[in-house]
Every structure is written in C-alpha cells, then in structure tokens.
Design a protein that fits this description.
CATH topology of the largest domain: Dihydrodipicolinate Reductase, domain 2
Order of helices and strands: EHEHEHEHEHEHEHEEEEEEEHHEHH
Helix content: 25-40%
CATH superfamily of the largest domain: Dihydrodipicolinate Reductase, domain 2
Largest sheet: 9 strands, mixed
Distance between the termini: 34 Å
Bound molecules: nicotinamide-adenine-dinucleotide
Length: 374
C-alpha cells in the first residue's frame, strides 16, 4: 500500500452510494473504482463523482493492484462469492449486513481472511452510532439494573425485497444492537411471520431470543406498516430506557421507573407492588454519521492490523440467529434451541444445518474436524 488506501465499492443500488460518499470524504483513502452490474447505477455515480472510475467487471477490481480493500453492498446471496474472490485476491473486505447466507459461508470467509492476513468486517452500522454507544455505557454501568427484556420495532411500508424476507433485511440491525448490549449469545430463537405480498417471502415477522440469564428480547420487523418506526425499549430492574432513532435530537429517554415487590409477606393482603415513578432524563448525544465512523474504523483496522469491533465473528453471530429464525419460521414458530446444537452455539464451529447449505456445512464441518486433529 503506498500512502492512501485504495477502495472499491461493489454494488451501488440504494446503500452503496452512501459508502462511496463516506469513503470519498476520508483522507486516509481514495475511492479508486466503483463496480455494479447495472450501467445506469454507474452513470449515476459518475455524475456525482467524476473522478471515480466505474466498471461492470468485478474481475477488473480483483486485478487492480491499487485497490487494497473492497466494500460489498450487493444483495446478500452474492456476498459470499464476491468476498471470497476479493480475499483470495489479497483485498481487505467490508461486507454489508447480513454478512452471508449461512454460518458455513461466514466461517469460510473468516478462515480465508485469517490465512490471507486480511481484515474482514461486517457492516453492522448501528454499532457505530452515538445513541447505541451511549446505551451500551448506560447498560454496562449498571444504571438500568438487571436487564429484564428488550423489545424492538423496525417497521415501514417497504422497501420490499424479493430474495430475502423481512427478518434477514431489517432484523440484523436489532440483533447486532441487542448482542452488543447484552454481550452474550442467545440460547434459543423463535420466529413467526407471514408472507402477504410475495409468496414465501415473509413481510411481517416477530423474532424472540432468550439469553442464559433469562433476559428476553422481541424484535418486530415489517415492510407492511403505515408508519416508519425505529424504536427499542430496554426494561431493567432499576430503570427503563427508550431509544427512538426517528427522533431528530431526543433519541434516548431514560425513565426512572420500576416495580418492586415486597421482600417478605405472610398473607395475600400484605402483598403490594410498589410502583416507582421518577424523573425522565434525556441525555445529550453528539451527532455523527455512523457510516462515516464505521468507514473510518475499517481504514484504521487496515492500517493497524487490529480486529474490527464488528469482525467476521460478529457477522457470523448475526447470521447464526437469522438461520435459526428461518428454521423456526419453517416450523411455524417452533423453538430453535441453540444450546443443544453444538454447531450453532459454538463461536468457532461452522454452520447451522440449513437444508440449502448442507454441502457447505459438511465441508466446513470436515475442515473443523481436521483442525481439531492438528
Ligand atoms: N447498513 C445499513 O444500514 C444498510 C442499509 C441498507 C442496505 N444494506 C445492505 O446493503 C446491501 C445492498 O442493499 P441495497 O438495498 O443497496 O440493494 P439494491 O438492490 O438497491 O442494490 C444492490 C446493487 O448491487 C448490484 N449488484 C448485484 N449483483 C452484483 C454483482 N455481482 N456485482 C456488482 N454489482 C452487483 C445491483 O445491480 C444493485 O445496483 C445489502 O446487503 C443490504 O442488506 C445495509
């Protein structure tokens, strides 16, 4: 690498242009080439950034020595193949959420990145947002007490996707935030939903995760709602917190509210709940674009060789839950017990036995067994 890091953004539909905008604003890098299969998307990028070269050929990106890193913002089904080729060509990769279509694919990408000594980072944007960082501080300081449950709603009218259901499209944000806040993997996942508009593509789902300490989370995802909603409520034993990402300034409200039960009572008449109503605190949050911080962090990791906060492992954890959610949906909302499935619960073992990826899982499992023999 000579001086500034050469970046290529692959996929310039809805999200890719935001990556181009942020990377072009950072002095540590230059956006060398943008790739998309659709010429009209490339024409759009060229109008905005006349200095950036464009191409429909991904091979041209792989062949270009000046390109050190590739940011992938294409449909999920293409993430694995594009990221694998980029890593094999010696490029660092930033992969938009969800990182891949199966746990085995994530595992393979992580192994390849390790072999090639390249950075692999999952584009979990919200982990780099100021409100989420502040909530993490509040939770870690114990201000909320024990977390009883987290409920999250991410709803809007559209944007409908054809290849993935609404859980795979929207819930990665909520899952990544919840895992970040709780700091543990769930022990089980349930997911129910319905496909109203496109057959077999659920547009409304409800995903629940249960954690080892009985903490519980509910994620509602919908492309069929009259209002755009981005809300998360965290209920703790001491305080409750509301995070509304649609609020321009007052995104976090910390409620000094709780319910206490008497420590000791002999008769039902003596039993009384004590409801505590205190102040509502609205902390000041410094405005910063999360995607810019994410892009900066990716560059920093390339320069220093340090592990990203949302590395391949965090990407795989989210995919693991999405795969379990798909399995639960197939079973009409049945519980998928992650603790009973070593392949799912282990952080280092490959994939969940999803029917579409049986061969990949078998291959990855063989690789894991070979690693254990060494
Ligand atoms: N982090 C976030 O907040 C966020 C927000 C939206 C979308 N995303 C993610 O970004 C990715 C893209 O989503 P989108 O909404 O922009 O999709 P999109 O369909 O609008 O755009 C995808 C683009 O990729 C191009 N493409 C497809 N296959 C390609 C290939 N093999 N090589 C080059 N280009 C190819 C398409 O022509 C299209 O222009 C998804 O993974 C999505 O989940 C992330």
């Amino acid at each position: 690498m000579n001086g500034s890091i050469g970046i290529s953004v692959v996929g310039c539909g809805y999200w890719g242009p935001n990556l181009v905008r942020n990377f072009t604003s950072l002095p540590e890098c230059h956006v060398k080439k943008v790739c998309d299969l659709a010429p009209e998307r490339l024409a759009y990028i060229q109008r905005l950034y006349p200095g950036v070269e464009v191409t429909t050929s991904f091979q041209a990106i792989l062949d270009e020595d000046d390109i050190d890193a590739v940011a992938i913002a294409t449909p999920v089904s293409t993430h694995f193949s594009l990221a694998k080729q980029a890593l094999q060509a010696g490029k660092h990769v930033l992969i938009e959420k969800p990182m891949a279509s199966s746990v085995a694919e994530c595992q393979e990408l992580m192994e390849l990145a390790a072999t090639k000594d390249r950075i692999i980072m999952a584009g979990h944007t919200f982990i780099y947002s100021s409100p989420v960082r502040l909530i993490k501080k509040i939770v870690d300081a114990g201000d909320l007490g024990d977390i009883y449950y987290i409920s999250s709603q991410r709803l809007n009218l559209g944007l409908f996707q054809k290849d993935i259901n609404v859980t795979w499209d929207l819930a990665p944000h909520d899952i990544s935030i919840i895992l970040f806040l709780i700091g543990q993997d769930p022990v089980s996942v349930n997911c129910r939903g319905n496909a109203h508009i496109n057959a077999n593509v659920e547009d409304v789902t409800s995903l629940t995760m249960e954690f080892p300490n009985k903490t519980f989370s509910m994620i509602q995802s919908s492309w069929l709602d009259p209002n755009k909603v981005r809300r998360m409520t965290i209920v703790g034993s001491k305080k409750m917190l509301l995070y509304d990402d649609n609020e321009p300034l007052e995104k976090i409200k910390l409620y000094d509210k709780r319910v206490e039960t008497p420590p000791h009572y002999d008769t039902f008449a003596e039993f009384q709940y004590s409801y505590h109503y205190g102040d509502v605190h609205i902390p000041y949050i410094k405005q910063a674009e999360p995607l810019k911080i994410l892009a900066q962090h990716f560059l920093e990791c390339i320069l220093t060789g340090s592990k990203p906060e949302t590395s391949g492992l965090e990407g795989m954890q989210v995919v693991k839950i999405l795969v379990a959610a798909s399995e639960s949906l197939k079973r009409g909302g049945g519980k998928v017990d992650l603790s009973k499935s070593p392949l799912l619960s282990s952080k280092t073992m490959p994939g969940y036995q999803d029917t579409e990826n049986t061969a990949a899982v078998a291959e990855a499992r063989g690789r894991q067994e070979r690693l254990q023999e060494v």
